[in-house]
Amino acid sequence: DEDGLVSVLISWLRIVLCFVSMGFTTLIWSVIMVALLPWPYQRIRQGNIYGHVTGRILMKILGNPVKIQGAEYSNERAIYICNHASPLDVVLVMWLTPTGTVGIAKKEIIFYPFFGQLYVLANHLRIDRSNSKAAVESMKQAADAVSKNDLSLIIFPEGTRSKNGRLLPFKK
């Protein structure tokens, strides 16, 4: 029907606008990150600001309503453990976590166009899930960086996105 076609076209337009917006903000923050190469923890903070700006823009474009509960705790240092049921999870987490939050992701994130390269430039942490010993060492380094630099931490312990929205088993 005609209404269904209009909805599909609007959805596709929103998705395209999201990619264009993310590409634009990523380009701007990439330049900032390169200028901040000598200051790794300033890059984390700038990466968070990128996430706040980009996350808010993308959620507005998508038109998804967001209800935030517990906002009074949003500036406290914490460990954010998130499930990964939707591609929007990362956008929401980038937007809602405080400045001074470092993330841990699989090492393959570098291959995600634009976002992966900015993730590395922002000095966020990557782990090699295929090598348990290296992964444990990466987690120890993350704990050290978090405590020494008064950072918060984001982790998606499922390790991959759920295809049905249900919680997956956590990675070791």
Descriptors for this entry?
alpha/beta; 4 strands; four-stranded parallel β-sheet
Give an overview of the whole structure.
- One of its GO terms (molecular function) is 1-acylglycerol-3-phosphate O-acyltransferase activity.
- Keywords: Acyltransferase, Membrane, Transferase, Transmembrane, Transmembrane helix.
- Pfam families: Acyltransferase (PF01553).
- By secondary structure, the protein is an alpha/beta fold.
- The protein has one domain.
- Helices cover 52% and strands 9% of the residues.
- The chain has a four-stranded parallel β-sheet with strand order 1-4-2-3.
- The longest helix has 34 residues.
- The mean pLDDT is 85.
Largest sheet, in brief, is: 4 strands, parallel
Average of the residue pLDDT scores: 85
Order of helices and strands: HHEHEHEHE
Work out the count of structural domains.
1
Question: How are the strands of the largest sheet arranged?
Answer: 1-4-2-3
**DSSP strand count:** 4
